Amino acid sequence: MVAAARCCCLLLHPIGIHPASSSSSVHRLPRITRLACSTSASPLVAVASMDAPPQGYRTNVGICLADPSLTKIFSASRLDIPSAWQMPQGGIDEGEDPRAAAFRELREETGVTSAEMVAEAPNWLTYDFPPEVRDKLNARWGTNWKGQAQKWFLFRFTGKDDEINLNGDGSEKPEFGEWTWMTPQQVIEKAVDFKKPVYEEALKHFASYLHSDPTASA
């Protein structure tokens, strides 16, 4: 196993984001069980940016995992909703530091330990669950959350693609069926509607750390 490289202060020169015209090949989980998915569109929910997570929202971390060149971003399709692609995310345990939660969730969902933290979004970004999603998740969790309050982190992957394992580290059930590297714009376009505003805001925070793709059209 490749040892984790946990550097929290990587200095990079600001370069703007320029979406590429195509993404790299898709990597699939060997064992995939397709579950029923909903095709109904969810209403777009405006994102809120706050200094502290508000009451009534589940505290959560979001992870923007960039490739070694800081050009493209990891995105994966959900096993329960294959048409929905997203960046890794997960709940913060009681008393857990958000940075520690980000490293843990990255490992649990992707198997990645070879990564360094590049940047942290300054504010908490919140979104509300659409009604059908809220009912489903709260029934599963035994809670009554309105939505999620997320602290976002940008990581740079320092390993090789074969380190990425959608079975994660084996501590949790797999969430994703396939993954690929995408441009920031593709990540936003592939996300479910109610997450798009959060993705847009998070990627704005990280834009100065990401390099343009030399193969992207002008």
Question: How would you describe this structure in keywords?
Answer:
single chain, 218 residues, alpha+beta, Nucleoside Triphosphate Pyrophosphohydrolase, six-stranded mixed β-sheet, four-stranded antiparallel β-sheet, 19% helix, disordered N terminus
Can you tell me about this structure?
- The protein starts with 26 loop residues before the first strand and ends in a 12-residue tail after the last helix.
- 19% of the residues lie in helices and 25% in strands.
- The protein has 218 residues and is an alpha+beta fold.
- The strands form 2 sheets. Strands 2, 3, 6, 7, 8 and 9 form a 6-stranded mixed sheet that branches. A 4-stranded antiparallel sheet has the order 1-10-4-5.
- It has one domain (45-209): Nucleoside Triphosphate Pyrophosphohydrolase (Alpha-Beta Complex).
- It has helices at residues 98-110, 131-141, 184-190, 196-206, and strands spanning 27-28, 48-50, 57-66, 73-78, 85-86, 89-91, 115-120, 124-128, 147-157, 176-182.
- The protein is globular, with a radius of gyration of 16 Å.
- The protein is built from 4 helices and 10 strands; from the N terminus they run ββββββαββαββαα.
